[in-house]
Amino acid sequence: MRNFGYFRAASAAEAVQAGATPQVHYLAGGTNLVDLLKYRVEQPEALVDINRLPYGHIEELPDGGLRLGALVTNAATAYDARVQARYPLLSSAILAGASAQLRNAATNGGNLNQRTRCPYFYDVAAACNKREPGSGCAALGGHNRDLAILGTSESCIATFPSDMCVALRVLDAQVRLLGPAGERVVPIAEYHRLPGAEPWRDNNLLPGELVTAIDLPPTDFGQHYTYLKIRDRLSYAFALVSVAVALRLDEAGHVLDAHLALGGVAHKPWRVSEAEDLLTGQLPSAEVFGAAADALLAGAKGQGENDFKLVLARRAIVRACWQAAAGTPQSQSDKHIR
Amino acid sequence: MSETISYNNAPVPVALTINGQVHQIAVEPRTTLLDLLREHLGLMGTKKGCDHGQCGACTVLLNGERRVSCLTLAVSHDEATVTTVEGLAEGDVLSPLQQAFLEYDAFQCGYCTPGQLCSAQGLLREGHARTRDEVRELMSGNLCRCGAYPHITDAILSVLLTQQPAP
């Protein structure tokens, strides 16, 4: 990798000041950034190490929610007793991703900001509009088995690879940011972007902005949730398709409220309110879940090698809805899908 | 004063306690913890497999937690404590995991073994694995091209069961 300068920030103000310079990246867990440096996909002039900033805690919020510090590791978040008790969907999604070693390093802020794993983005000899604006997209008509079926554009069909963020989308998390102009809060729905004509912009962070925390509102889904991840091997692989579901049911079993999101199929976690509205007031059935799946996948388009995702996604959505309705979430260690 | 700056990519001083011994060393910002161990300190037990965080051969214990040393920069870990495979035994007395790997024939070529051992040590410390399925899932970050997984799992389970209080 090319060498670079290094600055260890002692305060948030210092970090944001240094981070506002072009060609400077923030360094947290490094599990994605260091890899990108090795491939020369990223070639910054300097890194600002933010690991000593005070964002390493999980705190209660006055409204009954929880604030996840940006520097809390994915492992510490997934195994936190409060997260496991109140947000088991988030815990499950995190534990479905990466490996134990990576989860011990990767941070919550870094998980939001990780880059796509599209092979052409990593191959600096290939055309990629995300890596090099205007160079083209080698994935269109190329090896696109892992890539997107929803929200694509003519310049990019990359997927956003996070599992954690699919759960955050279902949980309506809020992302807290600090930048040169001060603090702001962005709903997770508006944090990540679709590729459009500017696929190099993964999210709506402004120059120098830093994620400081993720706020979770209070929820009462109980055991009516699941994170179902389908991949080429049973562990330690990115999703071909993943589904996060959280339901609230009345005593007779009618759906009062449904939240559904997909991972592995788009440039951001994919959620469609029309699909959720189709479930409201209904009793669980194959027809109702199938209709919701069709609405969630409306407009989906295969790219050739990934045409199978249309069928796989529909089946995974229906199965995940059954799991959530039954209160039998997918285990992340027993790999049988029931 | 915790602020350190490297202009012009100059080496940065870091202090690391590795297998109980303190090392003061200056490294370029781009030096990974893995390269520091192997190239600067000659600790060759930690293996470079893929160098991209996909195989687990470079797993070490960083402040007690298992991490892939290839995907972390040494400059980030001033004042940290590192245990590598060389630090698992007490002199000539093997750790319970090392002994179990021998007894259960848990390796063939042995290249992945240092990473498997450090990862398993981290797994035991974390305390989240209780069943065979959980050991397999929580060891999925360590690949073994010889396919010794059943015996690796047996070896780890044998130590796990001796550590668990009887129900």
From TrEMBL, chain A:
InterPro entries: CO_DH_flav_C, CO_DH_flav_C_dom_sf, Diverse_Substr_Oxidored, FAD-bd_PCMH, FAD-bd_PCMH-like_sf, FAD-bd_PCMH_sub1, FAD-bd_PCMH_sub2, Mopterin_DH_FAD-bd
Pfam families in the cross-refs: CO_deh_flav_C, FAD_binding_5
Domain of life: Bacteria
SUPFAM superfamilies (UniProt xref): CO dehydrogenase flavoprotein C-terminal domain-like (SSF55447), FAD-binding/transporter-associated domain-like (SSF56176)
PROSITE patterns associated with the record: FAD_PCMH
One example GO MF annotation: FAD binding
This protein's UniProt keywords: FAD, Flavoprotein
FAD-binding PCMH-type domain segment(s): 1-221
Protein name (record): FAD-binding molybdopterin dehydrogenase
Source species of the chain: Hymenobacter crusticola
Higher taxonomy: Bacteria, Pseudomonadati, Bacteroidota, Cytophagia, Cytophagales
TrEMBL record, chain B:
InterPro entries, alphabetized: 2Fe-2S-bd (IPR002888), 2Fe-2S-bd_dom_sf (IPR036884), 2Fe-2S_ferredoxin-like_sf (IPR036010), 2Fe-2S_ferredoxin-type (IPR001041), 2Fe2S_fd_BS (IPR006058), Aldehyde_Oxdr_Iron-Sulfur (IPR052914), Beta-grasp_dom_sf (IPR012675)
Residues in 2Fe-2S ferredoxin-type domain copies: 12-88
Gene3D superfamilies in the cross-refs: 3.10.20.30, [2Fe-2S]-binding domain
Keywords, in A-Z order: 2Fe-2S, Iron, Iron-sulfur, Metal-binding, Oxidoreductase
Entry's Gene Ontology molecular function annotations: 2 iron, 2 sulfur cluster binding; metal ion binding; oxidoreductase activity, acting on the aldehyde or oxo group of donors
The protein's name in its UniProt record: (2Fe-2S)-binding protein
